[in-house]
From TrEMBL:
Signal peptide: none annotated. GO terms for molecular function: hydrolase activity, hydrolyzing O-glycosyl compounds. This is Glycoside hydrolase family 1. It comes from Spirosoma pollinicola. GO terms for biological process: carbohydrate metabolic process. Residues 424-438 have a biased composition (Polar residues). PANTHER family: ALPHA-L-IDURONIDASE, BETA-XYLOSIDASE-LIKE PROTEIN-RELATED. The lineage of its organism: Bacteria, Pseudomonadati, Bacteroidota, Cytophagia, Cytophagales. The keyword Aminoacyl-tRNA synthetase does not apply. Gene3D superfamilies: Glycosidases.
Length: 438
């Protein structure tokens, strides 16, 4: 077992549908991972990275209730285990299988929990998970902006998608813990801020700054602000549904993952409309706000920037984000990891995957020819420089990671048994308290 700062990257596996559900934006296909996955894992090793945000394509793996095609997952996860690369398993990244439909389907949470349970049984050596990626963004882009999946544009559709997505995440965590009692969950959620551009915009900005916390409030069982409670109730969430979230607090198994890009900050006009502001506060200020709210260890789970005409734009952004991580850590927040997302360039994210243009976005540590970009070389050097310094000097939680190569050791099984016993004790205590209250 090791306790280390988690320097990570990810392999982009977004797969929402567009064009009324007729076309799926499968980033694993567009970025060539299905053909070049062994080379991609080689690159992870060459860059000195031990942690990889990665997941099987849900739409080709989850074929129906109790029906799975594990062939690609068996190959790829078997290889990750052989190489002793620790996966942070991303089970749902912006899309669901065609037979489920979209995030308006009330059956999605239970079905997804079954899928998560089946994955955990298939790969019991896996410890780290992001069950549903960017829950807020997924609901927003699918049901409020009308860009993906159900392509709806209403507060009712948004609340419906949000409650299904977060419930799916909560049920998946419980299902995984049944199989792997010492599993850890790293939420990857967009960290946002809304700036009022004039006094008349203060109220709409305040509402948006409260709304940005909804997914994590529900996921962590934190009571939402009164105005947000009314918003949820007015747009279709029942009291019983709300109480479900308040009664399923799995916060003790969680690390709060914050994603930050230049697009995460917004200017708000008096009519409530928004547009990008660029970086104003930055990662340090906004992450501190999230940490003050949830008091959890933090991992920077996504960032990137286009490599521009000078060739050093992404390198400079990497340095800036890392400086922000160190500042957050120096302020006493337990920082446990950092991620440049993703390993390779992406395709069509310039249109937020709304269009199928085949446009290559130069955002990766490597290009799509699998050549390391300047930011990849800079990240490798950053990891080499800081890997041994951080455990001794940083204010960070020591995350008890069992490496894949250690998963069948007797002491590793004992760790799981200890975690199972501790979880059962908590469950028994909660049950007794509930009986006493009744």
């Amino acid at each position: 077992m090791v306790s280390q700062f988690m320097f990570a990257t990810g392999i982009e596996n977004s797969n929402p549908t567009i064009q009324g559900g007729s076309f799926r934006q499968d980033e694993l296909a567009k970025c060539g991972h299905y053909q070049h996955w062994r080379t991609d894992f080689d690159l992870v090793e060459q860059l000195g990275i031990h942690f990889l945000r990665y997941g099987p394509p849900i739409h080709t793996t989850f074929l129906g209730e109790g029906k799975y095609d594990w062939s690609f997952a068996d190959e790829t996860f078997g290889e990750l285990r052989k190489r002793d690369i620790v996966p942070i398993v991303d089970l749902c990244h912006f899309g669901v299988p065609d037979w489920i439909g979209n995030f308006q389907n009330p059956d999605f949470p239970t079905l997804f929990a079954e899928y998560a349970h089946a994955f955990a049984k298939r790969f019991p050596w896996v410890q780290l998970y992001t069950p549903v990626n960017e829950m807020y963004v997924c609901a927003e882009f699918s049901a409020l902006y009308g860009w993906w999946n159900e392509q709806l544009r209403s507060d009712v559709a948004f609340v419906n998608a949000l409650k299904h997505i977060v419930k799916a995440n909560v049920l998946a965590m419980s299902a995984i813990l049944e199989v792997r009692p010492n599993a850890l969950f790293i939420q990857s959620e967009s960290s946002e801020y809304f700036h009022a551009e004039n006094p008349a915009a203060i109220k709409p900005a305040e509402i948006l700054n409260a709304k940005r916390f909804l997914s994590l409030d529900l996921n962590y069982g934190r009571r939402v602000d009164s105005e947000m409670y009314e918003y949820l109730m007015d747009n279709g969430m029942s009291r019983d549904e709300y109480h479900f979230f308040m009664g399923h607090n799995l916060k003790q198994y969680c690390i709060m993952g914050n994603d930050y890009y230049q697009t995460n900050e917004h200017r708000v006009s008096a009519d409530g409309s928004t547009r990008g502001s660029g970086e104003i506060f930055g990662y340090h200020v906004i992450t501190t706000q999230y940490h003050d709210r949830y008091r959890l260890p933090v991992m920077h789970t996504e960032t990137n920037l286009w490599q521009g005409p000078n060739g050093d734009e992404a390198v400079n952004w990497l340095w800036k984000e890392w400086a922000n991580v160190l500042r957050v850590r120096n302020d006493g927040v337990p920082m446990v990891g950092f991620t440049w997302y993703s390993l390779t360039d992406q395709v069509d994210w310039d249109s937020a995957l709304r269009e199928n243009n085949g446009t290559v976005n130069p955002l990766g540590l490597c290009d799509l020819n699998r050549q390391i970009r300047p930011v990849g070389q800079a990240y490798k050097q950053l990891i080499d420089d800081w890997r041994q310094v951080l455990p001794a000097q940083s204010v960070c939680l020591e995350v008890p990671i069992i490496m894949p190569s250690e998963s069948e050791q007797p002491w590793a099984y004992q760790k799981q048994n200890d975690a199972k016993e501790a979880r059962q004790n908590v469950t028994n205590t909660v049950s007794k308290n509930n009986q006493a209250d009744a």
